[in-house]
Amino acid sequence: MSSNTAELKIDGKSYELPVIEGTENEKAVDISKLRAQSGYITLDQGFKNTGSTTSSITFLNGEEGVLRYRGYSIEELTAKSNFLEVAYLLIYGELPNKAEFDHFQENIIHHTLVHEDIKKILDGFPSSAHPMGVLSSLVCSLTAFYPESLDPNRSKEEVDLSIIRIMAKIPTFASWVYKHKIGHPVNYPDNSLDYCSNFLKMMFALPAEKYQPDPAVTDALDKLLILHADHEQNCSTSTVRIVGSSQASLYASISAGINALWGPLHGGANQAVIEMLESIKKDGGDVKKYIDKAKDKDDPFRLMGFGHRVYKNFDPRAKIIKKNADEVLSGLGIKDPVLDIAKGLEEAALQDDYFVERKLYPNVDFYSGIIYRAMGIPTDMFTVMFALGRLPGWIAQWKEMRENKEPIGRPRQIYTGYNERKIER
Ligand code: SDX
Fold it and tell me: What amino acid positions are annotated as catalytic residues?
């Protein structure tokens, strides 16, 4: 709380509203009693200026390009930690000691297998189905295989078990979705491998072929998952929170979050970026033509992977991923022409008033697809990769909302339809 208050004058009356201040000096006017006092609500489409909660999980400063998980910077976490340790940090609030990490990892390893009946659900989807729709269905099916998970008010141990199960099974789900799509037999988890190596092996191992994950690829994937792990109250996380606020289960809430992430304005942008770069390449690679199209209000074309609701200087994740893209591609000896097109677009946009005035910079999705592609991951699986990374953030935010006993989310509206009228006949 802050000793500060805000005064609002409406219809000649003044209302004093409390001001709250966070640990990073962010300030908010608390309007929770505004309607009761004044009969007024506030309106803010897209919640561009509205806070939905207080949270101690992730801090980002859009003006300075800062992103920290539980106080640790993503620069330090990608350099010194690993995805599972970061998942633990986000979910439980502190970096684990060795015993805590080993127990967490052991627990996850022993829940990677999924019920054989999942294959029947998988087989019900045509191979043309978009992987995100299949993934959200498989995640939601966990409510059927673990009906005890339906009650989010069960003991801490039982909630922890639900958390372990989905952390462990989502890489298996993701790889099975991919294998189903390409008509290959699925692979079972290899519990002798770490989280990322196991995922890559399930994705790419072929029967009767020895598959050895490339450590450089495993390391690059681990970093990418860390960079996607949480991002405070973004669209999909807000979805997870609002679904969970009705006391729907963790799995139902995560499944809803996967569907929100799917949209091309959100996590689906990483797929849209590569499709955009490919079409620019096919059209001769004329970067200026596409910069002009992005600026033309009459042209529906948007520079996908550019712009952000919060980052108004640069997305710190994009900086790290761009550097990784160079390293991974040169390490794998891959020359991908779309990387040069992406760099050309970034260079041209950052010198163009339209983008500079609107503070549009590359976001997390601009370069990530180039790395996924170099790993052999197909374009329509890119947003599944985003979901894999974002899962611990969704879990942490759902858990915080539940532990804080937050009320069911139910925004107000301003009605603009017909006044009362009678059926005349
Ligand atoms: C993610 O919120 C998060 O934290 C999300 C995320 C996470 O980790 O969870 O960071 C992940 O979703 C990243 C964003 C991925 N989406 C894209 O790359 C899609 C392309 N970007 C945009 O559609 C847009 O920038 C958004 C959706 C990201 C942000 O939209 P806003 O904040 O609602 O901004 P806006 O659409 O109101 O745009 C403001 C102006 C407009 O021009 P004017 O009306 O002022 O003239 O900027 C223009 C827009 O037309 N603009 C773009 C543009 N993005 C915004 N113009 C061309 N190309 C773009 N990419």
Answer: 308, 365
> What sign does the CA torsion over 316, 319, 322, 327 have?
negative
- Ligand 1 lined by 401 (C-beta under 6 Å): no
Query: For the segment 98-122, what is each residue's pLDDT rounded down to a tens digit?
Result: 999 999 999 999 999 999 999 999 9
Model confidence over 272-314: pLDDT tens digits? 999 999 999 999 999 999 999 999 999 999 999 999 999 998 9
Q: Is 309 in the pocket of ligand 1 (CB under 6 A)?
A: yes
Q: Is 229 in the pocket of ligand 1 (CB under 6 A)?
A: no
- Which residues lie across from 59 on neighbouring strands? 68
CATH number of 72-411: 1.10.580.10
CA 288 to centroid of ligand 1, rounded, Å? 20
Could you read off the pLDDT of 27-55 as tens digits, one per residue? Answer: 999 999 999 999 999 999 999 999 999 99
Candidates 68, 273, 302, 315: which one to mutate for ligand 1, based on the most atoms within 8 Å of Cβ? 302
Question: What pLDDT does 2 receive?
Answer: 63
Say yes or no: do domains 5-66 and 72-411 share a fold.
no
Question: Residue 72's beta-bridge partner residues?
Answer: 69
pTM exceeds cut of 0.70: yes
| Structural domain boundaries in the chain | 5-66, 72-411
Ligand 1 centroid to Cα of residue 63, in Å, is 15
Atom of ligand 1 nearest to the CA of 306: 60
Closest CA to 335 of 362, 370, 365, 368: 370
Number of separate helices (H) and strands (E) present in the chain: 18, 6
250 ligand 1 Cβ < 6 A:
no
Q: What are phi and psi of 64, to 5 degrees?
A: -100, 0
What CATH topology corresponds to 5-66? Answer: Rubrerythrin, domain 2 (2.20.28)
Ligand 1 contact via 306 beta carbon (within 6 Å): yes
Q: Please name the residue that has the structure tokens 């022409």.
A: 337
